[in-house]
UniProtKB/TrEMBL annotation:
Name of the molecule in the record: TIGR02679 family protein
InterPro entries reported for this sequence: CHP02679, CHP02679_N, DUF2399
Pfam families linked to this entry: DUF2399, DUF3323
Domain Conserved hypothetical protein CHP02679 N terminus: 53-259
Signal peptide: none
Residue numbers spanned by region Disordered: 1-26
Residue span(s) of domain DUF2399: 275-424
Length: 426
């Protein structure tokens, strides 16, 4: 951190008042020339760090003029060699004896170059400013989003905010971040420009690459459990997990055997999958809801069911990975209108995270997705691939996570496809 040469606050000042003009002229002749600027700079640095002005300071490869200036100051040659070495306590003694600096070296340097700002006070002021900047997040966690406590702590530690803004700008940045996260998830889903305009008065406030978008997206992922990734498609889906939509057409959900609109009725009669956009679901949702809706994670399951059961398939919804805003909108609609949701996913850590994310947004019951089902499938699959990744929890069955840890294999939905088909056929 640089040392300010012209600050008038929080400074070290020489005792004994101002230096008389005559003494200042003598002091400038002794210590103020360009050849000794390096020495004055070293003294200022020590003063800024509250270090004692004693012991030696060394200049590598001094010029002849710098050696001559040191000799004039000390009244003797400071020594030969490739470096120039001067003891600060010797300089202090010279200044006091000569009368040019009767109050010593610190007062002399201050008289020549101005007050020295103490770095400890600068750091304290800066830390106070950062504490003030983070206050909106503290309030958010305390009053509205306790589930973001770990994320807020991590944000303090990893330095992201300090890389994005200085304290004064960070105060507004974190205030806006807290305001966005207080409003999320958006239900019903809303376009990002409309959300940004309503929250911040600027439709482009959450455009990709802005500091605000970076922080809010980080908080969104902490809220929804959306997995790590990169790229425009990943960002679009991450935003959609909190109900913020870059557009209402590219966000879709895959269904089979679902009825309630002319298009869905036609697809169900034909035994063909239907792709519903978020726009369709917000403008023309299904008019009716079945008693039960099965939900799977992988589109290969739905494709095989369509090939096998065709028009006889009961209502089936496929998440295609993390639940999109379209999937959440559809499932909430069906649940609100009386449908029971029955969910199955991959038996691995990623699958458990997807299921947990969905459970936080809409209630469901497990469909062959318990610890007992996992153990049976693992026993029947001797060549199952090993389980990898970071462990997750399973709130619907507290025995499932220990079972995965114990057996250490992953069971994908396709592995138990015959059982799922049998359920749907019955």
């Amino acid at each position: 951190m640089g040392v300010s040469e012209d600050s008038n606050e929080n400074t070290s000042t020489p005792p004994g008042g101002a230096t008389p003009p005559g003494d200042r002229d003598r002091l400038a002749r002794l210590l103020g020339g360009p050849e000794l600027a390096w020495l004055v700079d070293r003294v200022r640095r020590r003063m800024a760090r509250d270090e004692p002005l004693t012991g030696p300071v060394t200049l590598s490869d001094p010029t002849p003029a710098q050696r001559e200036a040191a000799e004039r100051l000390l009244g003797r040659a400071p020594g030969a060699g490739r470096s120039l070495r001067i003891r600060l306590d010797a300089v202090d003694a010279v200044l006091r004896r000569s009368g040019a600096g009767p109050d010593g070296l610190a007062a002399a340097v201050t008289a020549l170059t101005g007050p020295v700002t103490r770095l400890a006070e600068v750091r304290e002021q800066e830390e106070n400013a950062w504490r003030e900047a983070y206050a909106p997040l503290d309030t958010l966690v305390r009053t509205a989003r306790p589930e973001l406590a770990a994320w807020a702590d991590r944000l303090r530690r990893d330095g992201l905010v300090r890389r994005l803004a200085r304290p004064q700008a960070a105060t507004k940045l974190l205030g806006d971040t807290a305001e966005a996260l207080r409003r999320l998830p958006a239900d019903p889903a809303v376009s990002m420009p409309a959300f940004a305009a309503d929250a911040f008065g600027d439709a482009h406030a959450l455009d990709d690459g802005t500091p605000l978008a970076t922080l809010v997206l980080s908080g969104v992922r902490a809220l929804t459990g959306f997995p790590d990734g990169s790229g425009a498609e990943w960002r679009r889906e991450a935003w959609a997990s909190a109900g913020l939509l870059k557009d209402a057409l590219s966000c879709t959900v895959l269904t089979l055997g679902l009825r309630g609109t002319p298009a869905l009725d036609w697809a169900a009669d034909a035994g063909e999958p239907a792709v519903l956009t978020l726009r369709q679901l917000t403008h023309l949702p299904p008019r009716t809801a079945p008693t039960a809706v099965h939900v799977c994670e992988n589109p290969a399951v739905l494709a095989t069911v369509a090939d096998t059961l065709g028009p006889a398939c009961p209502p089936l919804v496929c998440l295609q990975g993390q639940p999109s805003a379209a999937a959440l909108t559809l499932l909430r609609h069906l649940h609100t209108h009386g449908a029971t949701l029955l969910y199955h996913g991959d038996f691995d850590w990623g699958g458990l995270r997807i299921a947990t994310t969905l459970l936080h947004r809409v209630p469901w019951r497990p469909w062959r997705y318990t610890a007992a089902d996992y153990r049976a499938a693992a026993t029947a699959t001797p060549l199952a691939p090993p389980l990898t990744g970071t462990p997750a929890t399973a709130p619907w069955d507290h025995e499932l996570c220990p079972a995965l840890t114990e057996l250490g294999v992953r069971i994908e939905e396709e592995t138990v496809l015959d059982d799922l088909l049998a359920d749907l056929a019955s």
